[in-house]
Amino acid sequence: MQHTPVDKFGNPLCALTVHAHPDDEASKGAPTFARYAEMGVRTALVCCTGGE
Question: 5: phi > 0 → left, psi -120 to 50 → alpha, else beta; which?
């Protein structure tokens, strides 16, 4: 069983990354976010593009 990291108030930690293009996350922080996910931090990715 994996321990979920919490803040000083006992709330589960969450991390959000926001990028302009769908492939930007691969070159800008992917290893860091992968590590957070391995540690049990809830992670989310937002891509801000019109889909072109």
Answer: beta
